[in-house]
Amino acid sequence: MTTNRDAYEAVIGLEVHTHLLTRSKLFCGCSTTFGAGPNENVCPICMGMPGVLPVLNRRVVELAIRTGLAAHSTIAPYSIFDRKSYFYPDLPKGYQISQYETPICKGGYIDLPPTENGDTRRIGLTRIHIEEDAGKNIHHESYSLVDFNRSGVPLIEIVSEPDLRSAEDAGAYLRQLRAILRYVDASDGKMEEGSFRCDCNVSVRKRGAKEYGVRTEIKNLNSFRFVEDAIEYEVDRQIAIVESGGKVAQETHLWDPARKETRPMRSKEYANDYRYFPEPDLPPLVVPAEMVEKVRASMPELPADRKARYVREGLTEYEAGVLIADRDVADYFEATLPGLKNRKSAANWVMTEVLRVARDSDQLFVEAVPPANEVGALLQMVEAQKISLNAAKTAFAAMVKSGKGAEATIAELGLAQVSDESAIAAACDKVLAAEPEKVAEYRAGRDKLFGFFVGAVMKAMGGKGNPKVINEILRAKLAG
Amino acid sequence: MPESKITLEQVRHVALLARLELSPQDEDRLRADMDEMLAYVDKLNELDTKNIAPTTQVGEAGTPMRDDEVTNQPAADAMLANAPSRERGYFKVPKIIE
Amino acid sequence: MPSELNKLTIAEASAKLRAREITATQLTRDCLERIAAAEPKLHAFLTVCEKEALEKAHAADARLDAGKAPALCGIPLGIKDIYATKGVRTTCASRILETFVPPFDATVIERLRTDGAIFVGKTNMDEFAMGSSTENSAFGATTNPHDTERVAGGSSGGSAAAVAAHECLGALGTDTGGSIREPASFCGVVGIKPTYSRVSRYGVIAFASSLDQVGPFTKSVRDAAIILRTLAGRDPRDSTCSARPVPDYESALTGDVKGLRIGVPREYFVEGMQPEVEKAVRAALKNYESLGASTVEITLPHTGYAIAAYYLLATAEASANLARYDGIRYGLRVNAENNIALNETTRAKGFGAEVKRRIMLGTFALSAGYYDAYYLKAQKVRTLIRNDFERAFEKCDLIVAPVVPTTAFKLGEKMNDPLTMYLSDIFTISVNLAGLPGMSMPCGHDSKNLPIGMQLIAPPFAEETILRAGDAFERTGSFKPRTPVV
Ligand SMILES: [Mg+2]
Ligand SMILES: [Zn+2]
Description:
The structure holds three protein chains of three kinds. Chain A is an alpha+beta fold. Helices cover 41% and strands 19% of the residues of chain A. In chain A, strands 1, 3, 7, 8, 9, 12, 13, 14, 15 and 16 form a ten-stranded mixed beta sheet that branches. Chain A has a three-stranded antiparallel beta sheet with strand order 6-5-17, with no helix packed on it. The termini of chain A are far apart. Chain B has a domain of 38 residues: Orthogonal Bundle (Histone, subunit A). Chains in contact: A-B, A-C, B-C. Strand 2 of chain A pairs parallel with strand 1 of chain B, so a sheet runs across the interface. Bound molecules: magnesium ion and zinc ion. The site of zinc ion (ZN) has 8 residues of chain A, from loops.
C-alpha cells in the first residue's frame, strides 16, 4: 500500500459552515443563544408556520462582507437568495434559504501560515454565501426528537477551490480560516457547539494527472481531528478502489468517529435534486459601495497586514507568521509590549513559553495563560536585570498554576537578583580564596576556567547574583 | 396520439422528490394530467426569448434589512401547541433515515 | 321583523354606527342570523366565530359610545381561511391543516382588528387557493347565491358568496391568478386585487409568493376604498411589501372621469366568450364615454401565453411553499415507521387531487434538466407580458375588459378537466404576472340573471384610478344589480 500510495495525490476542497456572531437569527427576531431549553428560541418564522415571511438581518450581511474582505473576495453589489428544497425533520419549511448562483462574495484566497521549513501556500476560495441553519435532531433507538432552536441561525458557507492536497493541508486551512473569522469577529469558531462545521470533497488521482477523479463528499465533521482522520481514511479507501481496478462512486458519506470510517448516506441516494430557484419572498440583496466602504473602515487590522507590520518592526517572517496566526495570540503579544525595550524577546517568550501552556490546555487561549500585562512585567524585570531568565521561567510556571502576578511571585519565591557590588565582591573573594590552585592555573593562561568561577560564585549566591556584575568583578579580581 | 411528454417513471421520481405517496391509479391520472399540461405549455416555445431577462419578482430590488435585535420572547408552549406528537419540549418523530 | 342591517354597505353602516342610530351588536347579530339561515345552502363559511364576534361587537359599541371609534369600528367582516388568525382555526380548506390553530395574526388581520373590524368567521375557498370554483375545498364547495347549482367562483368563493348574500358587510380574499376578481364577477360584488406589494402578505398562507396579493370583497366601490386604506402600507414583516405612502382612497372617489383614457384590449374580446358578457362590458364602455372618458383600442399581444407561464411559475413556487406540510410540527400526521414514509403518507392523505397535481407539476418544472425549459422560460415570458402592459399604458390610464369569458358555470361542470378550468382565468392571470392592480365590479347580468363582472386594470400603484372610475360607473351605471336568490 505505502508504495502505491505515493503514486497518487489527493485533491481536496472544503465547504465550511460557520455561525455568525449575531444576537438574533437570520430572518427572525429569535435569540441565537446556544444552550437554551428545547424549542425556546423559536417563533412562527423559524418554525416554518404557514404564512410567515423572512426579513434579513443587516448584521449578517455586514459580517459576510467583513469575512469576504478579509479573504480578498469580491463583494457582489447585487445578489439573490434561493430556495434549496429537500425534506428533513429539522428543516421546517422543506427548503433552506441560501444563495446559489449569486453569492454575496466571489473568489478570494487564504494564505496558509508558513510551515517549519518556511513554505507558504495560497488556497483559492470559490465563494462565500449566506444561508440559514436547520434545527437539530436528537436520535433515540426507535424515534427522534426535534429542537428548532438552531433553525434560522445565520451561517456563512465558505467554499474553497480544490487546492488542498493532504489531510495536513486541510487542517492548516481550517485553522487559518478560523483565525480569520475570529479576527473579523464574524464567528467564535467553536466546533464543539457546532458553530464551525466542515464538509469535505475528496478525490484521488495519479500524481501528475490533470483530470480530477470522481469525488465523494464527507459530511458531519465537527472537529479538526475528524476532518484529518476522515480525509486520511477516505484517500486510502479511494486509492484501494482504484488500485484494485474499481471505480469510486460519486456519493455522500458520513464520518463515523467511533468506528473511524466513512459510510454512504442512505437518503441521499433516495432522491437528490435540490430544485434551487430564486426566493420570491426576498427581493434581491443590494449592497451599495458605501456599505462595503463602511464595513471596510470598521475592520480590524487583518492577519496579513499585521504580519507585515511585525516584520517592519523587526521580527522575522517566521516569528510574525506564528504570532498572527491567531488573533488572540497577536493581541496578547502586543499587550506584553508596553514598557519593554526588546520586542523580540517578548515574541520569543510568547512563541515558546506562552504557546506551550496554551497547547497543553483544553481551555481557550486567553483563559489558559497568565494575563499579558503580568508576563510583560516579568519580561521588564529581566530587562532591568532584576531577575535572571531562568528565574523568569520558574516564576512563569508558578504564575500559570497560582494565577498570581509577576511581582508577588518573584517575591514569594525569592527570585530577585542581587546586583549589589559589595555582596558580589564578597562572594567572589570567598570563592577565589577557596580555590588558590585554580586561580593560579587561570592566571597561567587557562582561560576556560573563567566559567567555573562564575558558576561557583552563582552557586554561592543561591543563583540570585546578577551574572553581568559577577563577570565584571571576577575579571577584575582575577586580573589583579 | 402525440408523443408523450412525461413517463410513468418520471412521475414516480417527481413524487419521490415531492414526498407524495401515489397509488397506481394516482400515477396514471397524474401522468395523463401532467402530460396534457406539459403539451399545453409547449406553446411558450413559439416565443423567442433569447434576449429576454427573466422576471422573478415584480417588486423593487433591495431587500429591507432589520437591525440585529432579539424581539421574540421564549414561548415554547405556544410554538408546540400544534405538534402532532411531542415529548418534553421536543417534537417527536419516528426513526429518521439519514 | 328582522332589522336586516346586514344589507347595509360599510359606508352606510359606519355612518349609522357613528350617529348611534344602530349598534354594532345589532349589526353583528343580523349578520350571524343571516349566516345561520343561508349557510345550509351556501356553505360560504368553514368556521363561524359567533361568540368572539359578539364580544368584539360589545367592545366596539363601547368605543362608539365614547366617540373614539377607528375607521372600521363595529363592521362585521368575513375572512378567507387562508389568513392566520390567532387562536382561530385556520385550515386553508385543507385536511392537512384541519386542526391548525395559529399562534399569531396575519398583518392585515392585526390592522383590521386595530381599526375595529369584527370577524364573523373564516370563509371557504379552494384548497390552498388552488382553483377557480371553490369546489377544491376539502370541506365541500360553496354555491353561488344567485343560483345554488352554480359555483361561486374561486378560489375566494366563500368570501364572494358571503358578501353577495349579506352574511357580512365585506370580506377578505386573496388573488394569485384571479381568485378575487373571478368570484366577485360570478357573485356580483366588488373585488379588488391591489398592486403586488401594496398589501402585506405576512400571515397569508402562501400559494405562489410572487403572485399572491391580498384584497377585499365589498358591496360597493366606496367600501373597497375604505377597507383598502386599512390594509395597504409598509410592513416590516414582509420584505416584498412596498414602503410607498398610502393615499386616502376614498377621497379619490370624485365621480369625475372626464379626460380619462380607457384602453380596450383587443385580445380580451375573443370568440367563444359568452356574447352577453361582451355586450355588458361594451355598454359600460359607452357609459364611460358619455361621462367624458375616451376609449382606445390597445393590444396585449402575449395574452395567449399567460396561462401557460402562470401554471409553471405558480406551481413551481407552490411546490416549495407547500413542502412545510410534512406532518412534523403542526397539522395532520399519518404515522409511519420512518420520517420519509411519514412525510409521504401524511401528504398523500392531507392534500386533495388539485393540490397534488400542482405540486407535481411545479416540482417537475424545477427539477434537474427541466428548469430552463419550463421554469426559466416561463419567467422570460412573464417579462414579455409585463412589457405588453407597460406599452399599453403609454396610450391609456386604465384598461377596461371582461373578468371571465362567461358567467358562473355549473357545479361539477369543469371538475374533470383541469385545463378547461385553468382557461377560465384567461383574462385575470396576466394582471398577476405583471403585478398590476385589478378590480372586478358588477356591470350587468345575463339572461339567467347571473351577474356579469367588468375588470378595471391600472398601472402599478394606480388603485385610485381604478376606484375613481369604478365609483363613477356605480353612480351612473344603467343596470340595477339583481338580488341573490339565497
Ligand atoms: Mg450549505
Ligand atoms: Zn424565530
